[in-house]
Amino acid sequence: MRSYLDHNATSPLRPSAKAAMLAAMDIVGNASSVHLEGRTAHRLLDESRETIARALGVIAPMVVFTSGGSEANNLAVKGYERVLVSAVEHPSAQVAAGKPEIIPVTPDGVVDLDALKTMLPGPRALICVMLANNETGVIQPLREIVGLAKEHGAVVHTDAVQMFGKLPLNFGLLGVDMMTVSAHKLGGPMGIGALVIRDGLALQPLIHGGGQELRRRAGTENLVAIAGFAAAASEQPAQLKSLRNELEAALGEAIIFGQGAERLPNTTCFAVPGMNAETLLMAFDLDGIAVSSGSACSSGKVAKSHVLAGMGVAEEISLAAIRVSLGWNTTSQDIEHFIAVWGRIVARARARAAA
Q1: Mean pLDDT taken over the chain
Q2: Residue 105 and residue 107: Cα distance in Å, rounded?
Q3: Any catalytic annotation for residue 297?
Q4: Extended beta strands in 212-293, E state
Q5: One of 297, 303, 340, 347 is an active-site residue; which one?
Q6: Per-residue pLDDT tens for 311-337?
């Protein structure tokens, strides 16, 4: 039996998304062409954009399609001279900002609002704070952050890639100016995402050329992937909190990062002092379970987590951290499988320690 428990890295393609993509493959035209085939493609593009916009509580022209979450984060950040970025932010936002000012977080991984308040006076800033963290699942107090930003005329961008499809998400209720979403974290295809932009906010394009996406992102739209994105966005979030709680109850004395904060219902990041993440990953994999160590964006290697470092976690504990993330096709059998394998791993570790 294989149990895939790495949905925060990427989620398996939903049947509805696959069906929508296969249907879109039969459409021949370019959505920018004026002939019948082009108009047919454009109709599907408009319908898909409307579906995604509706799922996010916005109007369709606010949705700009990109190649994924990383491009959307870059698109949001470029053009601002002063950028404030949380210590636990995704690298695509931190690096794109050039030399950002780092907003500290509490030991539970929540943005320190008092610290942010002291940082805001000065030139107009862009604040980048992800809605839910990809490693710990910790949810940030975006409404409070937006309130502080408005007092100082700052612009707020949030990376909501991990939230979309796991909990209800509404751009207007958050009050942010820009929001990043991506398809493959919720059961859509890889290679497609979007940046939602508040009406009237000017944007500096990354890609120049044609007039696609209201001249905000040039290039022929990836219609097949967009159709799959829309289908996945139409699905209801899975009810995963009870499964996550069952898994966490079996972890014994493990440290669960961010446990004192509000978290996504699908994410558990934990460590046991003395254990090594790389060894654990191999043990889980050999026993039929796919999990990860922190972010999957530095694929193929286990490295120190900047997220856990930002939370003040000691390096020896950070290097033992494992992330388990559930998704739309996770079952109780998967959780039982994980608990059984974890029990065997702990028993072997205790036997070695006693030898």
Answers
A1: 94
A2: 7
A3: yes
A4: 255-256, 267-271, 289-290
A5: 297
A6: 999 999 999 999 999 999 999 999 999
